[in-house]
Amino acid sequence: MAGESYTVQQGDTMITIAKKKELRSWEWIWNHPDNQSLRDKRSDPQVLAPGDTVVIPAKKPKDFTVETGKKHVFRVKSLKAKVRISLSDENGGALAGKRFKLEVAGKTHEGRTTSDSIVELDIDPEPTTGTLTVWMGADPEKELVWKLNLGSLDPIDEMTGVQARLTNLGFLSGGVDGSVDEELQSALTQFQIVHGLEPTGEADDATKNKLVELHDRR
Questions:
Q1: Which of 38, 65, 100, 215 is the S-S candidate for 165 at Cβ 3.0 to 4.6 Å?
Q2: Neighbours of 8 (CB within 10 A)
Q3: Contacts of 176 (CB under 8 A, 6+ apart)
């Protein structure tokens, strides 16, 4: 049976697509030979662009041999998405060992940041928004709060992908809408100056590569 062609929507990742199609493995879809052209185009399976085409292979039922007259329990592992957020304060300082709370999809996750100032959790794979609160010390009033868009990162070759990375790294406060305006050019120039790049104010290859290095590979 031939596979199904699926057109990527805004916010889709391989994990969310697998969940939509009621599949337990996004890797099975991503690594299928029919998706070779997509793998050649996108290096990260969780960073896709609207309009990309994903082939959903036809499901193959599994056969199980069980003994009659007895009760048998089959457990199905649910899909989970891993959230990994690298944090720093307004001065670029580390936030290691800080208590945090992530509120997302009606659920609250609590813990402490790692020694590398990382928040890492498994959550439901549906793209959504969330609120991350980090306490700087014992004083409950001393906190940092971030509003998060989870599962909605576009590839770096899309202007929305450039804007999203600049926003997440603290250089841009405007919307992620793909428009090129003075605020975006200013943010690009500031980013370039901070990281020793030629301050052109444009999203050139060197700037895009640096954005991916700092944002995607943390």
A1: 215
A2: 19
A3: 149, 160, 163, 164, 167
